[in-house]
Amino acid sequence: MFSIRLSIFDQTFEVRSNDAHIIEKISLDFHHFITHENVFLESISILVEPPPWHLIPMIRSLKQNDTSIIYESEGVRFNDYHGQALSIVNYKTSESAIYTDDRNLAHELGYVLILSRSGKKMDLAGFHKIHAMGLQYEKNNLIFISPSKGGKSTHFLKLLNDPKIKIYSDDTPVTDRSGNLYPFPLRIGLEINTALPDFVDATKTY
């Protein structure tokens, strides 16, 4: 088993996988949060293997959406991604796991699960993520909010070339109850075939 540890706003997670490639990608996604702390609060396993469907209890689903069917029983939540993957979150033991045969899907669902679990703990600690671009200009903190396909990424790429601009996050800056803004550096997601700035190393994109 391969693993890394992430410290996200003072909440430490151990991320494990039976696939070294998954851990390599998660390390790139959360590069700024990697830590070597010995103590962790929650473990998240991303497993490239057949999902253990038999673990889902024979109960009525809690809810259903376009991505998954959700069941919950005795403090454990099961997300059935329509037969493609299964996630199990045990709130009592602070252990979570993703199971799927699809390596790319495992990485993507693992990424989302880390954001979900860390986001819950951040909210409880008084730190809240905003779906927006956060930046600083002349010591003023600014948040740029736009709908999907509203041009946020296009503006972000242009602002990267301006030395007067400091970027907190291209997608999810963090704020607290006092309105302070904090960086939340993650991978940058762009549409396929988006023209990259000259200073971006294309070999580090995926």
What's the SSE blueprint?
Layout (H helix, E strand, L loop, with lengths): L1 E7 L2 E7 L2 H10 L4 E2 L6 E7 L14 E2 L4 E5 L2 E5 L5 E5 L4 E6 L2 H22 L2 E3 L3 E5 L2 E5 L7 H8 L5 E5 L4 E3 L4 E2 L24
Parallel strand pairs: 2-4, 4-9
Antiparallel strand pairs: 1-2, 1-3, 5-6, 6-7, 7-8, 8-9, 10-14, 11-12, 11-13, 14-15
Helix pairs in contact: 1-2
Short description:
This protein is α+β, with helices and mostly antiparallel strands and 206 residues long.
Based on CA atoms alone, the radius of gyration comes out at 18 Å
Shape call: globular
Q: Got a strand count?
A: 15
Walk across the major sheet and give the strand order. Answer: 3-1-2-4-9-8-7-6-5
What does this 3D model show about the protein?
- This protein is an alpha+beta fold and 206 residues long.
- The protein contains 3 helices and 15 strands.
- The protein has helices at 20-29, 103-124, 152-159, and strands spanning 2-8, 11-17, 34-35, 42-48, 63-64, 69-73, 76-80, 86-90, 95-100, 127-129, 133-137, 140-144, 165-169, 174-176, 181-182.
- The strands form 3 sheets. Strands 3-1-2-4-9-8-7-6-5 form a 9-stranded mixed β-sheet. The protein has a 3-stranded antiparallel β-sheet with strand order 10-14-15. Strands 12-11-13 form a 3-stranded antiparallel β-sheet, with helices on one face.
- A hairpin with a 2-residue loop joins β1 and β2.
- α1 packs across α2 (103-124).
- The chain is globular and about 55 Å long.
- 23% of the residues are buried.
- The mean pLDDT is 89.
